[in-house]
Design goal:
The chain is of the alpha/beta class. The chain contains 23 helices and 18 strands. Helix 8 links the parallel strand 8 and strand 9. Helix 2 runs parallel beside helix 11, helix 17 runs antiparallel to helix 18 and helix 19 runs antiparallel to helix 20. Bound molecules: gamma-amino-butanoic acid. It is a multi-pass membrane protein.
Length: 789
């Protein structure tokens, strides 16, 4: 080698050494969690170090300076983290800025104190909204956007899928409660319903169960990923997953957080993965989706490649946020570079290396420089807003087909209605074919009587009414004909009127909602009046037979029709008064009752079948009173009918038929009332049965009372004589109906009737005497046999 060449090399080496020696070291204080709830310190330290290496390799950034980091493990614990910070602050050399912490609680504790050392702090990972409070954390910057930033994107997603009932569950840390408080306020602004807001500290089992009990379908969760495994394990146990549920969680958990074996839970990773399938994660964008070279001269892919080499391609916890570590290092460098330039421009003799913890002037310069930082990093464009938080896009991920996929972005500055952008390469896939509903759809299915059944019953009733009217007409036309006259036509008319009222009750059935309960009231009135009128008349007639038959003193006992009519109408009046009082003091209303419920659409819809009951507060008292009166009447009526069962007195005409009617009404009423109560929950069946019993009882009553009369009337009309029937009159005057009515005055009829009654009693007495005689003879025989023996 030539001497001149050797000299040249020596000069280069000397100058090189001089240049190396002229580099001034600046020290950063690093806070990294290597354990605890979020222990991504290793992955973030690697990316920060990568950033510092790139910065130190650049001659245009902080020329003459070299950035170094002195760090320690915060354990994601605010107490420990603060202690670590003190130790680093009080050990030489002086640190010019703090990078960290990661866990928000540690960032809060340290940055609340660090500004007292006139030191600016920047976090690469903390997301708590609380850290945006500049009165508490005046010199705190961060490259990770607070988690509230993602709330507008969540609201936008909810609106898009028509989710209005939202539940939340979060870990009891300010980081998560602040996000939830912000979300709840936004839900309120959007008129959405907060189903429940569950908070847990270490064991979410009760809270997840409560979500299930309250039919929460869209659930927003805020917790660290160790708790995520617990929450989704509980969700698995409570069946709170699958196509009917949508979980929306934070976006900064690791990619395969569900597959980690976790001794603190009783679920397998597969079970956690099953429960987590389909969850949506909203987080800020951690890696620029555009492959552009940023401030470090590298694209996002270049970053990943070099980062992979530096970490030996290990899957490190928290690596998803690694780009933020790189960008944080650059933010620090650019801030200090700006300060350096400011110092130079101001002609100050100070350099960055002159910083000490009492130098508030230099701190203010660094602080102002940091506010101005704006660059494109590996996570995209980065600048700080008024709270020194970064501004950025939101990324939407979803676990689909077992892997986390990037399914969309939210652009906060996008046009309204166009802020959400769904990916076409990884579209949303809904397990059930469509997005879940925000609640179990509850459908009320009112069960009313069908038109077919109603029509059939009304037709039968109408026929019954027509027949009753025909009977009424015949009864009126032939009221003076003996056969009609002797069975008290006025009372019979009352029976027919009662029958018409009873038939009419069949029409009083609401086929549509009847909030005024008009049909309830009409039904109660027509049935009660109908029953008391018809049965009252039957009862009074039986009572007369009984009164005559049991009048053994052969004293004249005349019970006039008018008395019986008063008796019947008295009963109608009493029942009507009770009903009127009922309707006035305690009006009826139509109340829906659930008959049964049925799950449909795989449990997404519950159909509540409803039947309607005419109800009122004191209904029971009025019913007991009315049923009590009618019940006594029925019992007494039965007794009278039984007592008079052997009376076959032509003059009392239809006494036996009336007895049959009473038994018939009693039996049908008892069965009818019982069925009405039993079939309450089956409105159509109840109506059909009740109507059948009303129609049957009423038709039988009017049939038994009137058909024989009409037949006899027809016979007598055919024979041309009305009195050909000895059975009824006991005589035959051979005249026609017109002749008879013409020749017999009212007095004569009454006298003959009285005579007939007396005859009847006489024959009854004779029978009694005969029976007594027979008894006597029997006794004598028995006595004689006894003495002979
Ligand atoms: N982003 C990871 C750390 C979360 C927090 O404690 O802010």
């Amino acid at each position: 080698m030539m001497i001149s060449q050797r000299l040249t090399i020596c000069v280069i080496v000397v100058f090189g050494l001089l240049e190396v020696q002229s580099v001034t070291d600046l020290y950063l204080l690093g806070l990294f969690p290597m354990e605890g709830a979020w222990y991504g310190g290793r992955s973030l330290l690697a990316s920060v170090q990568m950033g510092l290496d790139h910065i130190n390799g650049r001659s245009d950034i902080l020329p003459g300076y070299r950035l170094n980091i002195m760090w320690n493990d915060t354990k994601c614990n605010p107490g420990h983290g603060t202690n670590v910070m003190y130790e680093l602050l009080y050990s030489a050399p002086t640190k010019i800025m703090i990078i960290g912490a990661a866990c928000s609680a540690v960032s809060q504790a340290t940055s609340q104190a660090s500004h007292n050392w006139n030191i600016v702090q920047i976090s690469y990972a903390s997301v708590s909204p609380a850290l945006s409070d500049k009165t508490r954390f005046p010199k705190f910057f961060r490259v990770s956007a607070p988690d509230v930033t993602v709330n507008p994107s969540r609201i936008e997603i909810m609106k898009q899928f028509n989710w209005n009932r939202i539940a939340t569950i979060h870990q009891s840390l300010e980081l998560f409660s602040a996000v939830t408080t912000d979300l709840v306020a936004r839900l309120k602004d959007e008129n959405m319903t907060l189903v429940t807001s569950e908070i847990f500290s270490n064991d979410p089992s009760l809270q997840v169960e409560s979500l299930k009990n309250q039919d929460a379908r869209i659930i927003v969760g805020g917790f660290y990923q160790d708790m995520a495994r617990k929450v989704f394990c509980e969700a698995y146990k409570n069946d709170l997953y699958g196509p009917r549920y949508q979980w929306i969680v934070v976006g900064w958990w690791d990619d395969e957080w569900w597959s980690i074996e976790d001794d603190s839970i009783t679920c397998t990773p597969e079970e956690v993965a099953t429960a987590a399938e389909g969850y949506i994660a909203t987080g800020i964008v951690y890696l620029n989706p555009v492959q552009e070279a940023g401030i470090g001269g590298i694209t996002p892919d270049d970053f990943l490649e070099e980062y992979g080499i530096r970490t030996n391609h290990e899957v490190l916890f928290g690596a998803v946020m690694a780009p933020q570590g790189y960008d944080a290092a650059w933010a620090v460098a650019l801030g200090l570079h700006d300060t350096m330039e400011q110092l130079a421009a101001s002609g100050s003799s100070k350099g960055l290396e002159d910083f000490d913890y009492h130098d508030s002037e230099l701190t203010e310069m660094v602080f102002e420089s940091m506010k101005r930082v704006s660059f494109t990093g590996v996570r995209g464009a980065l600048s700080f807003n008024d709270n020194f938080d970064p501004v950025g896009m939101v990324q939407i991920d979803r676990k689909q087909g077992g892997v986390k996929q990037k399914v969309g972005f939210y652009h906060p500055d996008g046009e309204s209605g166009n802020k959400l952008q769904w990916s076409s390469s990884s579209p949303l896939v809904w397990e059930g074919g469509s997005p879940p509903k925000d609640a179990t759809q509850s459908i009320d299915s009112p069960q009313r009587v069908s038109l077919a059944v109603y029509g059939t019953m009304c037709t039968l009733s109408a026929i019954g009414i027509i027949v009753a009217i025909v009977f009424l007409i015949i009864n009126s036309i032939y009221r003076n004909v003996r056969i009609i006259k002797m069975s008290s036509p006025l009372l019979n008319n009352l029976i027919l009127l009662g029958c018409i009222f009873s038939y009419a009750a069949v029409f009083m059935q609401a086929l549509q909602p009847d909030p005024e309960a008009l049909f309830c009231r009409l039904n109660a009135f027509s049935l009660t009046i109908g029953f008391s009128m018809a049965f009252g008349a039957l009862f009074s007639k039986t009572w007369r037979v009984h009164a005559i038959f049991t009048n053994v003193q052969l004293k004249k006992k005349v019970v006039k029709d008018s008395q019986l009519i008063i008796m019947t109408m008295g009963l109608v009046l009493i029942n009507s008064i009770i009903l009127i009082v009922w309707m006035v003091v305690d009006p009826l209303y139509e109340e829906a009752h659930e008959s049964k419920s049925e799950e449909k659409d795989g449990g997404d819809t519950i159909v509540h079948y409803q039947h309607f009951i005419c109800d009122s507060e004191k209904k029971i008292y009025f019913l007991v009173t009315l049923y009590g009166i009618q019940g006594l009447l029925l019992i007494f009526g039965c007794f009278l009918a039984w007592e008079t069962r052997k009376v076959k007195i032509p003059v009392l005409n239809d006494s036996q038929n009336i007895g049959i009617c009473i038994y018939n009404v009693v039996v049908l009423s008892v069965i009818g009332v019982t069925l009405t109560m039993v079939l309450e929950a089956q409105p159509e069946l109840q109506y059909a049965f009740t109507s059948c019993f009303i129609i049957l009882g009423t038709s039988m009553t009017q049939g038994i009372i009137f058909v024989p009369k009409l037949l006899k009337l027809r016979q007598s009309r055919k024979a041309g004589s009305e009195d050909t029937e000895d059975e009824y009159t006991g005589r035959n005057n051979g005249g026609t109906r017109t002749e008879v009515t013409a020749i017999e005055d009212k007095k004569a009829i009454e006298l003959r009737e009285e005579l007939n009654v007396t005859k009847a009693k006489l024959s009854a007495m004779e029978k009694m005497v005969k029976d007594l005689k027979n008894e006597k003879i029997k006794e004598n025989i028995i006595t004689e046999e006894g003495s002979t023996a």
